[in-house]
Design brief:
By secondary structure, the chain is α/β, with parallel strands linked by helices. Bound molecules: pyridoxal-5'-phosphate (PLP). The site of pyridoxal-5'-phosphate has 13 residues, from helix 4.
């Protein structure tokens, strides 16, 4: 049977992706090799457990594939232990929290409206905000984290876990300082590098590995891999708790998940190999150059821009006008997302900014010239 309905829709989506200027900073274009692994026969196989310790027979090649992903990942990340089974970023963070926290323990993360992520203790509606006591830090008027204030908060609240990671933060994260602060109260420090993993592996953003206990990341953003995630245990993590790797593995399976998606894991092995090349390091440099030019062009056109020192920026488009502007830009073939700005005066549903980034169009071969032209176009549309 040929499912024409689904095929047609996939084809239309492919055409859309080829046509538009894609500026959502968490999106990218995976290689044909990554997509080949994703769409392979590996989707047919159950493999509950870990390599060499499976609950099902028939996993000889699956074990080789998962071990390959682990070894390649450990090499590019520089971690002691790697779990490549989390289905995605949110389950990975839930597994970490489940492994190391008890119900009611304190967790400290960056506020969602300041560029943090839901899974970092966003109150009331999320797993991390419902099951743990959440203490959130903020950014300053200029959009930056004030590490002295963070230290004050941590000393006062003594959280058991600190999440160092962001989803809309356009500046370099000072992981060394995060490490010093966490150590003062003996807190677990988790680097969620979902957005910047490609920049770290590409050598254009400092790595957190020496300063944190765990490093986790999604694999489908700047890394250009399949939708998925990993959790890495560092040397510092094992020094704090020699059983940390075991605890993380147990929390992922059987704690949070059942059978791993081995097609994703194979695609991740491919993505790690692709990232361990000069070509990827050059790509990462270009992502940063392009973002810098785009931000400067928007600023020259009189827009208030937060950033950038990485692959993304947040642009103030007027009080509560973020969604309206994102829609207007899409009508002009430019796809981004509405976003809160630091110290937002609107609401998360009616934010005042847009978030834009360069990883996807850099994959398509865009350089400074195209991004300067694009910046002028965006400014024209935003200013009406
Ligand atoms: C910093 C950060 N952590 C976690 C996640 C969650 O990842 P997923 O959407 O794969 O669950 C995201 C996704 O946007 C993110 O930006």
């Amino acid at each position: 049977m040929i499912d024409k309905q689904v095929r047609d829709l996939i084809q239309k989506e492919e055409e859309r992706q080829n046509l538009v200027v894609s500026l959502i900073p968490s999106e990218n274009f995976a290689s044909e090799e990554v997509k080949m692994a994703l769409g392979s026969c590996l989707t047919n196989k159950y493999a509950e457990g870990y390599p060499g310790r499976r609950y099902y027979q028939g996993n000889k090649f699956i074990d080789e594939i998962e071990n390959l992903a682990i070894e390649r990942g450990k090499k590019v990340l520089g971690v002691e232990h790697l779990n490549v089974q989390p289905y995605s970023g949110s389950p990975a963070n839930s597994a970490i929290q489940m492994a190391l926290l008890e119900r009611g323990d304190k967790i400290c993360g960056l506020k969602l409206s300041a560029g943090g992520h839901l899974t970092h203790g966003h109150p009331k509606i999320t797993f991390s905000g419902k099951f743990f006591e959440s203490v959130q830090y903020n950014v300053e008027e200029d959009g930056r984290i004030d590490y002295d204030k963070l230290e004050e908060l941590v000393m006062q609240e003594k959280p058991k876990m600190i999440m160092a990671g962001t989803t809309a933060y356009p500046y370099i994260l000072d992981f060394k300082r995060f490490g010093e602060i966490a150590d003062k109260v003996g807190a677990w420090l988790v680097a969620d590098v979902s957005h910047i993993i490609g920049l770290i592996v590409g050598g254009v953003h400092p790595s957190p590995v020496d300063y944190v206990h765990l490093i986790m990341s999604t694999t489908h953003k700047s890394l250009r891999g399949p939708r998925g995630a990993f959790i890495g245990v560092t040397k510092k993590g094992l020094e704090k708790d020699p059983k940390l790797a075991e605890k993380i593995d147990k929390a992922v399976f059987p704690g949070m998940q059942g059978g791993p998606h081995e097609n994703n894991i194979a695609a991740l092995a491919v993505a790690f190999a692709e990232a361990d090349t000069q070509e990827f390091r050059d790509y990462s440099k270009q992502v940063l150059k392009n973002a810098a030019v785009l931000a400067e062009t928007l600023k020259k056109n009189g827009l208030r821009v937060f950033g950038t020192e990485n692959h993304l920026m947040v642009v103030d488009v007027g009080k509560e006008r973020g969604k309206e502007m994102a829609v207007k830009l899409e009508e002009n073939g430019i796809v981004c997302n509405a976003n809160t700005i630091p110290h937002e005066q609107g609401s998360p549903l009616k934010p005042s900014g847009i978030r834009i980034g360069t990883p996807a169009m850099t994959t398509k071969g865009w350089t400074e010239k195209e991004f300067e032209e694009l910046g002028n176009r965006i400014a024209k549309i935003v200013k009406g």
